[in-house]
Amino acid sequence: MKSGAVFIPTAWDCTLKIYDRARTLAQQFKKEVDFPVNLHFTDVSRYTVDCGLFMQPEYVVAEDYLQGKFLKWCSNYGYISPEAKSDDAIMPAFVHWSWVHTKGQEMVCDLQGTRDENGYYLTDPVILSLNNKYGETDVGIEGMAMFFMNHKCNDICKRWRRPRSESFKGKISRETLAACKHMQDDVNNGTSFTSDMKFTQTIKDIVKKVFLRIAEAQELS
User: Fold this and answer.
1) Residues 90-131 pLDDT 10s
2) Which one-letter DSSP state was computed for residue 38?
3) How far apart are CA 147 and CA 84, in angstroms?
């Protein structure tokens, strides 16, 4: 969604790019991970709306309606639903895999949609990136860090490498780590937040360096 009318088609370019990238990663995930469930990101198209004589056309994006109960399994800032920790363990595993697959450069998250016996049908994804290239919802390294603070690896992803809190001992102040823990508690209590924790540039540089070192390691840990 956008605030107000959209009068230029390129305003939706980032949205379409996110869907395309998420869809590509989901297809690759299916090939690489031995799991009998499909992840489908909905097809989304851009349309021109005729607003009448003497008025500029507006531009919207639309997708097929998703049938069934709508669920949110994780957010772009570390929230993971109880269902994703049990019956739908594939959801956080896919988020984890996307980080490993891209060597720490990107992470697909904000997974939501419906499911049936044939798989999951997902809409409105977010992609986090180290250089924040995927629009306003891309909260970058902060979102990646909050995900791994909350994520408990399951049978699907337990062998994949990941950053752990002990990786930052002696590198980040206790005050910052305590603030992360406080934010983690807020994240666990809901899917949306009035404010997100922003790292200073110094902290960002430290976290990125540690994350990349782990993500680029040759061996799974």
Assistant:
1) 999 999 999 999 999 999 999 999 999 989 999 999 999 999
2) E
3) 13
Q: What contacts 38, CB < 8 A, 6 or more positions away?
A: 30, 118, 119, 120
Locus of tokens 């450069």: 105
SS3 content of the chain, % helix, strand, coil (to 5): 35, 15, 45
Token code pair at residue 4: 């107000």
Domains parsed from the chain with CATH numbers: 65-215 (3.20.200.10)
Rounded Cα gap, residues 207 and 145, in angstroms: 8
- pLDDT tens digits for range 51-101: 887 788 999 999 999 999 999 999 998 889 988 878 899 999 999 999 999
Question: Taking the model in full, what pTM does it have?
Answer: 0.89
Gyration radius of the chain over CA positions: 18
Our CA angle for 32, 37, 42, nearest 5°, is 95
Tell me how far apart the alpha carbons of residues 39 and 97 are, in angstroms, rounded to a whole number: 13
Q: How far apart are the first and last CA of the chain?
A: 39
**Block residue for tokens 């390691």:** 217
DSSP 8-state assignment for residue 138: -
* CB-CB contact of 173 with 138 (8 Å): no
> Which residue type does 157 have?
C
